Amino acid sequence: MIRHPWRFFIVSLLAAWAVDFLFWEKPVGISFLIWVAILLLGAVFLMHSEGVQFAWQSFVLIGAILLLAAVGFLRQEPFTRGFCILLTIGLIWLLASTLQNGFWVRFRIIDYISAGFQAAVAALVRPLDLFKRDATVEEADAVQRKKAPRKLLPYLRGLLLALPILFVLGGLLASADPIFSGWMENLFSLFHVEWQGEYLFRLVYILVLAYLFIGIYLFALKPKRSMDRPDPDKSMIKGFLGWPETAVVLASTNILFAVFLAVQFRYFFGGNANINETGFTYAEYARRGFNELLAVAVLSLLMYLGLSVVSNLASKNSRAGFTGLSFLLVVQVMVILVSAFQRLLMYEEAYGFTRLRMVSHVFILWLGVLLAAVLILEILKRRGWFALAALISMFGFAVSLAVVNVDGQIVRRNIARSSLDELDTEYLKELSSDALPAMADLYENAGDPKIRDLLGMQLACRKRILEETAIPWQAYTWSDTHAGRILSGLGDSLTLYPTSERNGEWVVEKNGEQQYCSPQGSYFDSTGD
Asked: Taking residues 188-205, what's their average pLDDT?
């Protein structure tokens, strides 16, 4: 029974309008955190209105959601922000599916898929429930129906249905008749609204989003049926693959990995001398195979998960054999990961640090944590808890990226390992404001005057760009604010690197040398449009 249908309309419409107000033609900043807070506060308000209680596990999800949503305000590095935003949306979806029961802790992979599908269907179908007239509900809420909001509810429904129709038909009529079009423009000018296709499109997608949000809120707070308590230790399907077949697959894979690791210990882990015997330099040998080794690790993990589901392990010996071979497989995969990690370190030492390589650093570490969790779960015969371990690992990966500060680490490590001639100054220009604290620290403590001038020119450019670029408050970030304070604290030292605008781009000068402030070939519009 839905006590206050009209409140679902209002909360959902507010959340949908917030999407337009916060994100339309605006960069992501504090806006994402505000929108997530609006979405969650709307859920809390509706829960209170409907007398719904939720499980304590939902508090954990809400905390994780808010923490990840804050990364868009704290960091500007694209992958970090993008991954955290996607994971935040995924956790909101998970919260909607388990708000009242907290069963997400016990979910298997199939349960995540099933809950996501049910939520998607509910978003499309459940809003129609608010338009149904239930005689039982009307009798139970006879007193409530006498209140003004209840009396206005049918008219509100009609208005919501009529608005998109009026806008579409009105737009067509305005295009067909110039006199009518002028009349419409005069009418909307009274409200300081331009009669344009953009506003029609924005209105339509706001209403569509509001419709979907109604479905999600109803799915979370008023489920059609209660969810059965998942059993993580229950197999998703009945095993159909015999133990001999499974044993052959695991044993042959283990043998292949053992041979590969024997080669690794002879050459790669053995150092320069042994590799040089093969005709490769250490850097050339390390450069090859990182992506392939990472793919091997991921595919091996997927193979293990697949076999654990489809294998028929009815006997005690088959279960023990599967655990033993799986344990050996995962241990060897972890050693392969160590090889991949060392290759990455050597590759970076030879060719420098980039965002992809820094992200790969953190990813390998958390993949190793997940593999360690797989070992523990296999020994304890709790394979079904893998989904929870994977979710925790993804969350740890996202938070680690925010803490590490990818762009700041790139600046520190590239300058520490490079001479001035080797330093890729164009790549430094592509980094976000997250890199400014590291740049400023190295600038103030640089022993090499040439490195100091290089960083000074970069900082002067950043200062000018921050001063001249107009951004809406929705795009406000702590990263930009912190960078601005640091640049202001550098005082007059940056006046040694004057900046000027040429052909729409900022240029910085020092000792007759000129550099573009943005990567060469890119265009910087000082208006911020």
From this structure: 65
